[in-house]
Amino acid sequence: MLLRPTSAADINVFLGWVHDEEAMVMWTGPTFSWPLTRFQLELYLTNSLRQYWTGIDGTTGAVLGHGTLLFDDEARVCRLGSIIVDPDRRGEGLGRKLVELLRAKAFGTPTVTELTLGVIAQNNPARSLYESLGFRGTEVVRLTPMRDQMWEVISMRQCRENQA
To answer: In what residue span(s) does the N-acetyltransferase domain sit (predicted)?
Structure first.
């Protein structure tokens, strides 16, 4: 897998990956409203403070995943977010590779000493992946509405010196 900056051309791929409201909330929490639209994703890509990355197959160029980095230079922290991989390819290690590449980009910035992320508590595959990569849960930081329920969002972090 290789990383390249996300482009508007990737939006249709992402829309094809998010089949229902639950998948959308697992991906981005309360960022979007259901049904997910192209307009929402176009607006999402305009935040100049965030870096948007697309994971692609190095041979075919096929889009395999997406994630973001948000650097807070003053706090020396980078926030990893919006991690998603092709649902038809789950179980192939794409999520692991995507997070490893994004982590390398984040810690490639000399001032970054910590990488953080938020994960829905019910998203067991994502939580297990992050834990296997050395991230540790710190606390429930908010509740995200999902239909008639409130889902917990767990903050996880990894210090530069504790990379798995």
So the answer is: 11-157
CATH code where residue 28 lies: 3.40.630.30
Q: What is the structure's pLDDT at 141? A: 86
49-79: burial string, b at 16+ Cβ within 10 Å, e else:
ebbbbbbbeeeeeebbbbbbbbbeeeeebbb
Residue 100 within a domain: yes
What is the 8-class DSSP label of residue 3?
Answer: E
Its pTM surpasses 0.90: yes
Instruction: Extract the tokens encoding 15.
Output: 């829309």
Give the pLDDT score at 164. 63
Cβ-contact 72, 80 below 8 angstroms: no
End-to-end CA distance of the chain: 19
Q: Is 20 within a domain?
A: yes
